[in-house]
Amino acid sequence: TEITEKLEEAVTIWIKQIKQVLVESEQMRREVDDIGPSAELEHWKTRMSSFNSLLDEIKGSRVKKIISILQAARSKTLKQWKELDSNVTIAANEAKDNVRYLYTLDKFFGPLAKASPVTMKEHVPSLMNTVSMIYCTSPYYNTSECMTSLLLKITNQMINTCKAYLCEG
């Protein structure tokens, strides 16, 4: 029982740390007003990396051994642990899926940033078709919050490109 108590203490600390990571990942992002769409991809790539690392730790042999010992001891901390394990898996899957979908837009980010307003116009229909496809097929990114944020960043990039074009001329 002494070993079980020590292991429960360790798992309780992990639970608190993982809860903190999950809470921080759900907080509103602070971004500059004129940020472009490539920042959205970078955000999700960073989040995917963080959650994949956390998932690797959780699925590691050391943690598995401790969890199996606590299962044998019928520990009460396992209920919370399983819930958090599930939440981390969901967050990792969401980030991975969002990165996969946002990569389909990556080919538009360069032309959007470097084109003249006239040539930029040529890319807008296929860009919007791709955004529409993401909205229709993504299980995670099809919320109004995500779409609004993405469209705002695309618009910001178009405005910044047009401003730069006007300043050159």
Instruction: Using the CA coordinates, give the radius of gyration.
Output: 22 Å
Instruction: Pick out the low-confidence regions.
Output: none
C-alpha termini separation: 77 Å
Q: Which sequence of SSEs, written as H and E, runs from N to C?
A: HHHHHHH
Helical content stands at: over 70%
> Which structural category fits the helices and strands?
mainly alpha
Quickly count the domains. 1
Q: What overall form do the CA principal axes indicate?
A: elongated
Pfam families: DHC_N1 (PF08385)
InterPro entries: DHC, Dynein_heavy_tail
Protein name: DYH5 protein
Organism: Bucco capensis (collared puffbird)
What does the model show?
By secondary structure, the protein is mainly alpha-helical. It has one domain. It is 83% helix and 0% strand. It contains seven helices and no strands. The longest helix is centred in the middle third of the chain and has 27 residues. The protein starts with a helix and ends with a helix. One of its GO terms (cellular component) is axonemal dynein complex. One of its GO terms (molecular function) is dynein intermediate chain binding. This is DYH5 protein. It comes from Bucco capensis (collared puffbird).
Task: Describe this structure in a few short sentences.
The chain has 169 residues and is mainly α. It has helices at 2-26, 38-58, 61-72, 77-103, 106-114, 117-137, 144-168.
